[in-house]
Design brief:
This protein is an alpha+beta fold and 343 residues long. The chain has 5 helices and 14 strands. Among the domains are: 69 residues, YefM-like fold; 53 residues, no CATH class.
Length: 343
Amino acid sequence: PFLSSTTNSLDLDWAPSSETTCYANSLICDCLLDQPQKQLTLQDSLPGSSYRLHRQCELAFGSGSKPCPYMQPCAKLWCTGNARGQQVCQTRHFPWADGTSCVYGKVCYRGACVDKRSTMNVKVDGRWGKWGGFGDCSRSCGGGVQLARRECDNPVPENGGKYCYGLRIKYRSCNLNACPETGKRFREEQCEAFNGLNLNTSRLGSSVVWIPKYSGISPKDKCKLICRANGTGYFSVVDGTPCSPDTSAVCVQGKCIKAGCDGKLDSDKKFDKCGVCGGDNQSCKKISGMFTKPVDLLVTGKQQGGIHVQLLVEMVYSSGWSNARAQKDILQLIVTLLKGQQQ
């Protein structure tokens, strides 16, 4: 028969460790996070002992395909087929299945015909290799993240051995210096990067302005960049992006990681009641009351009783309050303070 080589190639195996090697932040691995209906165990025997050569041809090329005669054992699987009415031999360039009998007392293993006893290898549990160096900082200012990785290759697990347990990636804070004041949050700047992009849709023009969407976002999606205009786009935010405006936690590899108000990962520092990072609540005092006069009185930059009113008003406006009533109450409190100091 004629020989016909096909260029298709197949992945040879799926190891139990393949699930573990999927990064936690990789969206393509989400299908591995659900609980299995029942626990399955892999057979210790090699697949060639269960699927004879004839069956391997049928699995590769369809029903009726048979092994071609006179082929070299183990190296490549050549099977019969039909092309333009003629019988041909074809291959997909992968070897006979491990464990397939080749000659008496020998089996195929990794494309070679070897003694059957040499395939009965002892299980080897994997161990972690050395940590690699930390990479570049994800941000040039405002608190970024550096990542370091290690691999389960010292040794690599073999013959059903256990995969390494523990962290494959570790991280640390970097570039904690404050960014130049632009009046915009880091998430806003990331959304703005998509302004003017041609999204190949008639519903959105290139002049659309993208802004962050904060409300209605589930906790698991807080590290996705969700921008809204007349539509919504889903992207992954840069490491070091705050998970939301009301938390100090930051995004690292698609997950919210605890951080302090000082921007450091795993820091316990919090803002006190006065808005001071790591403060003791002693730098301010609570003043309550009602003010019914027009808020035009707020236009001032004078120092009033140790509090710069204009700065406080700017903080209120820039904080992006979604509750109009809460913002009005804060303005009333500030104005009451101003009125009391002027009397």
